[in-house]
Give the backbone structure.
Amino acid sequence: MFHQNDTSEILIRKAVPADLEALLRFEQGIAEAERPMDSTLKEGEIHYYDLAQLIAAENVHLVVAELNGELLGGGYADIRDAKDYLKHRRYAHLGFMYVKPEHRGKGINHLVLESLKAWCRGRGIFELRLEVYDSNIPAIRAYEKAGFTKNLVEMRIDLNAG
């Protein structure tokens, strides 16, 4: 039986094509969680990612958290070229950060983040960035606990509204 905060038996591994079905369910879980925070998201099934391409890409490390054959969550690091005006030449964008709701708060996201950080360090990448909704306070707290700081706020207006 898996106990709260007992992550010793959780395996963090690179995603493989056989994981695609579960990853697609995770993607819909992300959309479902984010829809109340973003009025611009379409209803129904949406896709943020080309997951098969992310699994195969050389510059992306898509990992899953697995316990006894069950996938509990995952995330990816995507090495990208930085804007010319920034100090760093390349950085890693983190995305697809997801843990099944029944397994949240058990340290799984931390394990995924640590795995992604190690992969980045091993490739000489020391700047990591991610996006999180301003109203997603639990995620913001988790990322701050992992060492991230707020950097930029994106703002929007709907000119069709009142």
